[in-house]
Automatic annotation (TrEMBL), chain A:
Keyword tags: Hydrolase, Nucleus, tRNA processing
Record flagged with keyword Nucleus: yes
Name the record gives this protein: Ribonuclease P/MRP protein subunit POP5
GO molecular function: ribonuclease P activity
First-level EC class: hydrolase
Role this protein plays: Component of ribonuclease P, a protein complex that generates mature tRNA molecules by cleaving their 5'-ends. Also a component of RNase MRP, which cleaves pre-rRNA sequences.
Entry EC no(s): 3.1.26.5
Catalysed conversion reaction: Endonucleolytic cleavage of RNA, removing 5'-extranucleotides from tRNA precursor
Similarity comment text for this entry: Belongs to the eukaryotic/archaeal RNase P protein component 2 family.
Keyword presence, Ubl conjugation: no
GO biological process terms on file: maturation of 5.8S rRNA; tRNA 5'-leader removal
Compartment(s) where it occurs, according to its Swiss-Prot or TrEMBL record: Nucleus
Species whose genome carries this gene: Saccharomyces mikatae IFO 1815
UniProtKB/TrEMBL annotation, chain B:
Protein's recorded name: Ribonucleases P/MRP subunit Pop8-like domain-containing protein
GO molecular function terms noted in the UniProt entry: ribonuclease MRP activity; ribonuclease P activity
GO CC annotation: nucleolar ribonuclease P complex; ribonuclease MRP complex
Annotated source species: Saccharomyces mikatae IFO 1815
Gene: SMKI02G0950
Domain named Ribonucleases P/MRP subunit Pop8-like: residues: 8-84
GO BP of this protein: intronic box C/D snoRNA processing; nuclear-transcribed mRNA catabolic process, RNase MRP-dependent; tRNA processing
Amino acid sequence: MVRLKSRYILFEILFPPTNSNVEETMSKVDLLLSHHRASPADVSIKSIVQEIRRSLSLNLGDYGSAKCSSLLQVKYFSNRTSTGIIRCHREDCDLVIMTLMLMSKIGDVGELIVNPVKVSGTIKKIEQFAMRRNSKILNLIKSGQSSRFGDNDFAVNDLRNIDNTNENEIENEND
Amino acid sequence: MGGKTFKEWQYFKLSITSFDEDIDNVHVIDQMTWRQWLNNALKRSYGIFGEGVEYSFLHVEDKLAYIRVNHADKDTFSSSISTYISTDELVGSPLTVTILQECSSLNLLDITDHDRIWLKRAVSEEEEEYCKCT
């Protein structure tokens, strides 16, 4: 019997500051905090699915939309952390990731970025990854705040390091 | 070893109709309308990737059009135009396109005596292009 192969995509919703001048004057910790905000109540699993389907249809047409929608599910979304997990077909994973990146609004909430963080073959691994990533970001913010809103070179490089170390910790999970 | 000839283009002979003779007789379909219809069809079926499909008109004669499509995109093109019905916005009535002929060589196209001039020009242009490449 042929098994249905699926992939799980961990994504986060970022809310970049709308005023670019503010962005220049902000410290890196503040910048990180301003991007990682809690999502408004309008952003729900239902509205995310609707927006993904709309984006799929817009960018990939009827054919691509139908192809990707076959197994598309939002398994989890937390408004508090603006983090979610999407399940999709293994073959269509790239298209779904592309669609996520092209989204700029969810429901009535605009000017946001959907950032696909990681793809995995099991939901368990992606949950573990999300927890590790969040706790490391939290530690970074705490350490950044304690060193007077650090001019230390943190945000982008350190986030990249978090992802890299997490990658190394995780063994191949391919089915 | 038998050398496989590289096919760059696929040629389509298309006809557009609203299935209403009165409307068909009133409207003349120009190249812009054809282009709009084809772009809409490609966009509907394949989104932004469909819009990127390369095609060009060899000749347009009201309800008939001869189109050149990149060989790699021939299936995308044919499936999108054969599954699309336009809205009323183009001529006030939905339009559909039928593929009358599909071939990989210009010389295989079904044409009338009136079409010989543009076909000859298209053949010579293609040969010129081929000479430049080799």
